[in-house]
What does this fold into?
Amino acid sequence: MLWIPPFTSGASKKDKVCAADDADLGKVVGFLPDAAKPTHLVVEKGLLRKQDLRVPVSAVCNYADGTISDVPKDAIEGAG
It folds into this structure.
C-alpha cells in the first residue's frame, strides 16, 4: 500500500515549515512535481536574500494548524 503523508490533503502554500530543532525553515511556496501528488515541498527561506529549499514529502513528520514541523535538517535539499 502506498503511504500518503497526512498533510498532503491539507497543506497549502504559505504554510510554515520548521526543522526538528524548531528552527524556522520558511514557508511553502510550491510543490514538485505538482500539488496533486507532491514528492517535494518548495520552501522559501529568507526575507531579502531568498533561498528555495526542497523538502521531501517523506521527511515530513507532523502537520497541524498550518505548520509543518519536525523536518530533519539532513533531509533538506538546497541548504548550504
About this structure: The mean pLDDT is 83.
